[in-house]
Structures are given as C-alpha cells and as structure tokens.
Write a structure and sequence with these properties.
The chain has helices at residues 38-42, 48-53, 74-91, 100-103, 110-128, 158-177, 200-221, 245-254, 267-272, 277-287, 313-325, 347-374, 376-384, 391-396, 401-411, 422-432, and strands spanning 12-13, 23-24, 32-33, 36-37, 44-47, 95-99, 134-139, 182-185, 191-192, 226-229, 239-240, 261-266, 290-294, 334-336. By secondary structure, it is of the alpha/beta class. GO terms for molecular function: xylose isomerase activity.
Length: 433
C-alpha cells in the first residue's frame, strides 16, 4: 500500500440528498436500469495516461503536478501501478485502459522497451488477481516520441512503419495477456501539415495495409476482443486521416475492413470535427461499427482538445440515448479520457473528478433510459416516416425515374411541407433531463 490517497475512503452510493462529496449521488452500481445493472450498462474505465502519467502541462506551460512515481525506472513504474490500483479500488472502477508508454519506462532500444512492458504487464496481472478491475482496452503510443513526428503507419520512413508495427504487436500481446476486451488504434499523428511534402495515396495505402496486419494478427493469435479505431479530426496535425466516423467508415470500406474494425468515439473529438457526440454515436451504430466511447468534454471557448471531465448531464443524456437505442455496449465501455485541471494539485482532486464524472454519466443514463422506455420520441420519429411503410412507397425505391415521373403526373401528386416539430421534441427531451 502507498499513502498517496491517504485518508480517502472508498466511494459508496449514498443517494441524491447526501452532502458527502466523497460519495456517489447517482451512480449506484447495482441499480437495475432497463433490466441490467447500472455498472454493466456504463462499464466505466479509468485512463492510465491522464490520471497517472500526465504532468499537468498545457500548450503554454509545463509540469505542475508532483507525483512520487514521476521519473525513470521500473521501481517507479511499479509505484505508479500500486497507486493506480488503489484508485481503482477507491472508485470501484470495473475497468482501466493504458498505452504502453504510460505504464513502462522507455528503454535504450526497442527490445528493452518491450521487456519493460512485459515486466509491468506481469505486475498488472499480479495486482489484477486481487482486484475486481479488468482491462477494457490497451493501445500503443505512436505519437509522443519525435520519431513519430511524421506519423506512424503513414510515415515516409519505412523504418518508422516497422517500429510502429513491432510496437503494436507488443501492445496487442500485452492486451491479450491481461484479457483486455478491445484493442484501440489511435492515430495521433496519422495526418499531414502540408500537401507540399505529402503523398496522400501512398500514405492511405500504408495505413490500410497496417490495419490489415493488425486484423490478421488478431485472428492468428485468437484474440476475441474488438479492434477499434478512434476518430480524431485535427490537433496536432492540420488534417488527420481518421477525421470522424464517416471518414473512418469510408477508409474501412476501401480496404474491406468494415466487418473487422469498429470505432471508439470521443466526445471532444466529435466536437472538434464539427459534430455532436450523439451524432457520431448514432452514425456509427447505423453503419454497424459502434464499439466504445471516450467520455470527456471540451471547453467550448477553446480551440483544442481540453479533455475535461463531463459535467453536463443533459448533453450526456443524448449520447447514452443513442447507445441504448443501439443495444448498449458489448465489449466497449465508458472510458474517462479526461484529466483534472493543471491547478488541481491534490490527490482528492483526482478522485472527486471521477466521482463527478461517474455521477454525471449515471444521471444521464437514467434519463436516457426513462426517455427510451417512455417511447414518445421513438413514436414521433416513426410517425414522421410512416408514409414509407406503404407498399407503393417501398416499391418506389425499386422503381426508376421515368416510372416515378409518370406516376406523379397520373396521380396528381402534390406534396405539402410537414412540420419537423423540433421545438416540441426538444421540450420532450427536457422533461426527462
């Protein structure tokens, strides 16, 4: 045991009226919502990178956090793991997620870095034997080191491609060893800053081949989890190839991978792409590629990905409404890809940020479930498209322009506009949130 979270109790559910800040007001893991325990609906995960590896910097300032595990060496990496699992226990978190570079120190060469990862994975495994926390997904950091300044899979240097492939293999091996339920590819620098030095066609082919190798390795090793891509539109690159869900789907179709790979959608990335979070979730579900989510929020007055903890229950409600409509998570879950503010220096801040985020999501889930169970929104949506249920309307989709044009004149069709009822529907949503 460490003393980093000294005197912080395990967080329990005490209900909406509690004044205890170290308690859940809305997240009751055992509460049944639409026939399933709340914990099994939400499948919360703690992000290893933001919670334990981030030093508190921003684009204009460096480290503000002082942590006893900051530094190099396996001993400090194991202290970090000790603290992490203590926090998982305090929160009752069912899952965590990590990049390789979050968990192990960088070695003098690839082989040493791989051995460091294997050692810390074994240490994770020992801790998981006495913990209820499991691995939601693992991933590789292919963006922080200067070698990745021009991308990983899309890099013009084949040696960087090779290094990246070897890194992903090691991280997939680690994920499988820990029985992770997914593996995520986050193309943090898979993009370009200027077309003057970029061959778009070549880089796309490299990215497609790289992803195909990942899928092949999944099947070769018998990994049963999902392979996920996390869309991101910009920052740090001017334009990134995995811009949004629609772009990722087009990429998957191009390389015949739409049946093999799904998406991990982040709220902050959806906003940067000019979409809403619920739009990206609904689109992914409609395309059959919805997998998991990274839960956070951006500061809407800032132009970058601020990764703040969610605190807007009405906004989050619409996201979980689309998740419930899609049938809920299977292997995916709610990963808090969120970090405390650089001025939030105390261990308590880290705990309370997660408490607030978990409560926000739980409150939103209950609102979304109530709205879906009520059925009014779905009924009104169905009524709007009811005309398409008629046999002649369905037949029209199998017809041709000339036949349709003849029918319009023969039958004197003269359509009149119908209200979309947007304000009514917004008022309906507000009854539940």
């Amino acid at each position: 045991m460490t003393d980093f979270f000294r005197d912080i109790p395990k967080i329990r559910y005490e209900g909406p009226e509690t004044e205890n800040e170290f308690a859940f007001r809305h997240y009751n893991p055992d509460e049944v919502v639409m026939g399933k325990r709340m914990e099994d609906h939400l499948r919360f995960a703690v992000a290893y990178w933001h919670s334990f590896a981030w030093p508190g910097g921003d684009p204009f300032g460096g480290q503000t956090f002082e942590r006893p595990w900051f530094g190099d060496g396996m001993a400090l990496a194991k202290i970090k793991a000790d603290v992490a699992f203590e926090m998982f226990d305090i929160l009752g978190a069912p899952f965590f997620c990590f990049h390789d570079a979050d968990a192990r120190p960088e070695g003098a060469n690839f082989a040493e870095s791989r051995r460091n990862l294997e050692e810390i994975v074994d240490y994770f495994g020992e801790k998981m034997q006495t913990s209820r926390t499991r691995l939601l997904w693992g991933t590789a950091n292919l963006f922080s080191d200067r070698r990745f300044m021009s991308g990983a899979a899309t890099n013009p240097d084949p040696e960087v491609f090779a290094w990246s492939a070897a890194t992903v293999k090691s991280c997939m091996d680690a994920t499988m060893k820990l029985r992770g339920e997914n593996y995520v590819l986050w193309g943090g620098r898979e993009g370009y800053e200027t077309l003057l030095n970029t061959d778009l066609g070549r880089e796309a082919e490299q990215a497609g081949r790289f992803l195909s190798m990942v899928v092949d390795y999944k099947h070769k090793t018998g990994f049963k989890g999902a392979i996920l891509i996390e869309p991101k539109p910009q920052e740090p690159s001017k334009h990134q190839y995995d811009y949004d869900v629609a772009t990722v789907y087009g990429f998957l179709k191009r390389f015949g991978l739409e049946g093999e790979v799904k998406v991990n959608i982040e709220q902050g990335h959806a906003i940067l792409a000019g979409h809403s979070f619920e739009h990206e979730i609904a689109l992914a579900a409609s395309l059959g590629i919805f997998g998991s989510i990274d839960m956070n929020r951006n500061d809407y007055q800032s132009g970058w990905d601020t990764d703040q903890f969610p605190n807007n229950a009405p906004e989050v409600t619409l996201a979980y409404y689309e998740i419930l409509r899609a049938g809920g998570f299977t292997t995916g879950g709610t990963n808090f890809d969120a970090k405390i503010r650089r001025q939030s220096l105390e261990p308590e801040d880290l705990i309370l940020a997660h408490v607030g985020g978990m409560d926000t999501c739980a409150r939103a889930l209950k609102s979304a479930a109530a709205m879906l169970s009520d059925g009014t929104l779905e009924r009104l949506r169905a009524e709007r498209y009811a005309g398409w249920d008629a046999p002649e309307a369905r037949a029209m989709l199998k017809s041709d322009l000339a036949s349709i044009a003849a029918a319009v004149e023969r039958e004197g069709i003269d359509p009149q506009p119908r209200s979309g009822r947007q304000e009514r529907l917004e008022n309906l949503v507000n009854r539940f949130v």
